[in-house]
Amino acid sequence: MRNAVVVALAVIGVGFSFSGAVGILRMPDLYTRIQCSSKTITMGALPVLVALVVAEGPLSTYGSRTLLVAVLLLSVNPLASHALARAAYKRGVPMWSGSVVDQGAERRLQDSDPGGE
After folding, report:
1. pLDDT value for 6
2. What is the mean pLDDT of residues 102-107?
3. Which of 16, 41, 88, 96 could form a disulfide with 29 if both were Cys (CB 3.0 to 4.6 A apart)?
4. Which of 23, 35, 31 is nearest to 100 (CA)?
5. Domain limits at 63?
6. Is residue 85 part of a domain?
7. What stretch of H or E contains 3?
8. Is 42 within a domain?
């Protein structure tokens, strides 16, 4: 039974990771690629890490390290993807031409308008 759970979690993780890789190849610009990679890599790694905890036990050497990696992944991955997107935007990397709205540019226009309209 334990092996079936481990295999199922590993397959789920690999499936999410594969969909993230396909998304990175198919997305039109840097910003959507960052979003695609950060969400799917997190959802791809977590089931694999949980599979390792289930296989080895939470109190084993591997299990405790795996739980630490999972916590770090959940906290660092959103911060890193935000930093990448912010740096790209400030550097002037263009958005996809089909993007609906650029809220950062609208905010800059409002801030630079002395009349406030």
Report:
1. 94
2. 73
3. 96
4. 31
5. 2-93
6. yes
7. helix 2-26
8. yes
